[in-house]
Amino acid sequence: MGMTWSLFAALGACTSSDAHTGDSATTPQQVVETVTYTDGLEGYLCVPAGEGPFPVAVYNHGGLGSALGGDPEATCKALMAEGYLGFSPVRRSTVPIEGHDEDVIAGIDYALAQERADPDRLAVLGFSRGGFLTVAMLTERPDVTVGVVMAPAPVNGLLYSVLEEADQVQATTLVLVAENDLPEFNNENEDHVATATAVYDALVGADKEAELVILDAWEDNGHDLFQELRDEYWGPVTEFLASRL
């Protein structure tokens, strides 16, 4: 159920709020634009054409400082192509994680405030440090319906502290990682297979609905699998979202 490259290329041409489909006189337009969502921070907003309301899906990027991990813009557009109101906030460009949770909360609240958003159907997705922040949101926000955690970063052990609150999670969660996302292969010198497994184990141990998918090895660095939008992981993500939202 992965996104085809031809569709991806077509979506890539839509870069402003002028992008639309359908008869604008009777059907609300498609929206693809860069917006300011809080305190001067920008993000990508992607809303399908139609009346809605649409389920909301917020994507949290990884990376350190101004070097982003993952592809926020492409993911936003891909979520829209699947029928979701997509939003990818770009957090403050600081290496310390302090305050990044506030940026994610602001991004979620911004997306839910959109006119065609369905606040009762909310998914939060994240990769690497964004995966850690997604886990944090699952423990803090009972309004999250579905979580998708991709190769979560340990963030100096903070992930394991957050997992102590797994009993607070209300969402059903998909955890994904490549089998070679290990210290000897990735540039982060971190065992993301272990962190992904820890997230899954904590959720199941707290009697929460969760699924762990260990994907095939990706080239010579498993962490790089999620740096771009790829069918290898996007197919399982869209299938999981469709079955839960």
Number of helices: 7
Number of domains: 1
Q: Kindly, what is the distance between the CA atoms of the first and last residues, rounded to a whole number of angstroms?
A: 16 Å
Order of strands in the sheet with most strands: 1-2-6-3-7-8-9-10
- The value of Rg in angstroms is 17 Å
- Helix-strand pattern: HEEEEEHEHEHEHEHEH
CATH superfamily: Alpha/Beta hydrolase fold, catalytic domain
Write up what this structure looks like.
With 245 residues, this protein is α/β, with parallel strands linked by helices. The protein has a single domain (5-244), classed as Alpha/Beta hydrolase fold, catalytic domain (Rossmann fold, 3-Layer(aba) Sandwich), CATH 3.40.50. Helix content is 31%, strand content 25%. It is built from seven helices and ten strands. The protein has helices at residues 5-12, 72-81, 100-112, 129-140, 158-163, 192-205, 231-244, and strands spanning 31-38, 41-47, 54-60, 62-64, 67-69, 85-89, 117-127, 146-150, 172-178, 210-215. An eight-stranded mixed β-sheet has the order 1-2-6-3-7-8-9-10, sandwiched between helices. Strands 4-5 form a two-stranded antiparallel sheet. Helix 6 (192-205) links the parallel strand 9 (172-178) and strand 10. Mean pLDDT is 91; it is low at 1-18.
List keywords for this structure.
245 residues; alpha/beta; Rossmann fold; eight-stranded mixed β-sheet; two-stranded antiparallel ribbon; 7 helices; 10 strands; globular; disordered N terminus
